[in-house]
Design brief:
It comes from Comamonas antarctica. This protein starts with 6 loop residues before the first helix and ends with a helix. The protein folds into three domains: about 70 residues, no CATH class; about 90 residues, Cytochrome Bc1 Complex, Chain D, domain 2, CATH 1.10.760.10; about 90 residues, Cytochrome Bc1 Complex, Chain D, domain 2 (Orthogonal Bundle). It is mainly alpha-helical. The strands form two sheets. It has a two-stranded antiparallel sheet. Strands 3-4 form a two-stranded antiparallel sheet. Helix 3 packs across helix 13 and helix 9 packs across helix 12. The protein has 14 helices and four strands.
Length: about 300
């Protein structure tokens, strides 16, 4: 009930819920007291099709008591569990609390499994078949939604198999990325570069850094404007892993390739986020997942 922004909605739910229960109770009470005049044969006098007569028998007692028990159960339940506006209930149960308890129980059960890998280096875990099988399942459940089941990523989602790393591909750097997450931002730079024509020339210079098809004349004109980008990407365009600035010379295009894509990024900037997993995965799980991700681009180092 934390979505309530003021007491009105809490009171509204309380009144509506208790009013419904009270209405059911009063309906049962008054209909039970009302006497309907019936004929000597216990019918209402209504006849259909010549011989079908409507009986006026009272409700069976078991049905009445079942109705009463249902009303009482509803009141007891609402007193014990959350259901009346912002009231938490006498038992203090909540969905969040139940979820956290289940997660704590699950973590306690799987911790012994990961204890075996705790004393291994990331490289040693990458050579352990059981660790890699577990790491693959962790990847499928937590990473494949963005990076793909084959870890080759897609537009704006890095390929984890090619050895091209924004923040570094060492096990320690991968573990930090998984644990703390990453937030990358490329600010709009068109104003710093110059005119739209200057931005277009710069795009061709950036293409030339990786040997991609480009207009050589525009590239030569755009070189001088690259100084606006050098603070992050370096004068040689090889990037800066400490800042998460991509290497522009390796022909790996995270957000799209070509003149139009580069102009769009320079003009409008770009933001990307890798969510932190420290609140979702245990330390042991992160360690195994780190080794699995590292192994994807280090097959030779992870081989037996």
């Amino acid at each position: 009930m934390s979505d309530f922004v003021n007491n009105f909605w809490s009171i509204f739910v309380i009144v509506l819920t208790l009013g419904g229960i009270l209405f059911c109770a009063l309906l049962l009470f008054f209909t039970g007291r009302k006497k309907v005049v019936s004929a000597e044969d216990s019918t209402t006098g209504h006849v259909w099709d010549g011989d079908l007569r409507e009986l006026n028998n009272p409700l069976p007692r078991w049905w009445v008591w079942l109705f009463v028990i249902t009303v009482i159960f509803g009141i007891v339940y609402l007193a014990a569990y959350p259901g009346l506006g912002s009231m938490s209930g006498k038992l203090g149960w909540s969905q969040v609390g139940a979820y956290e308890a289940e997660m704590a129980k699950a973590k306690a059960q799987i911790e012994p499994l990961y204890a075996r890998f705790a004393g291994m280096t990331p490289e040693q875990r990458a050579e352990d078949p059981q660790a890699m099988a577990i790491g693959e399942r962790l990847f499928m459940n937590n990473c494949a939604q963005c990076h793909g089941s084959d870890a080759r990523g897609g537009k704006s989602f890095p390929n984890l198999t090619d050895g091209d790393w924004l923040h570094g591909g060492a096990p320690e750097q991968i573990q930090q990325t998984i644990t703390e997450g990453r937030f990358g931002i490329m600010p709009p730079m068109a104003a710093a570069v110059g005119t739209p024509e200057d931005v277009r020339n710069l795009a061709h210079y950036v293409l030339s850094l990786s040997g991609s098809p480009n207009d050589s004349l525009r590239a030569s004109l755009g070189k001088s404007h690259f100084t606006a980008c050098a603070a992050c990407h370096g004068m040689d365009g090889k990037g800066n892993q400490a800042m998460g600035a991509p290497n522009l010379t390796d022909d790996v295009w995270l957000h799209g390739w070509g003149e139009a894509a580069i102009i769009d990024i320079v003009t409008h900037g770009k933001q990307n986020q890798m969510p932190a997993q420290k609140d979702k995965l245990t330390e042991g799980q992160i360690g195994v997942l780190t080794s699995y991700v590292w192994s994807l681009s280090n097959k030779a180092g992870a081989a037996h």
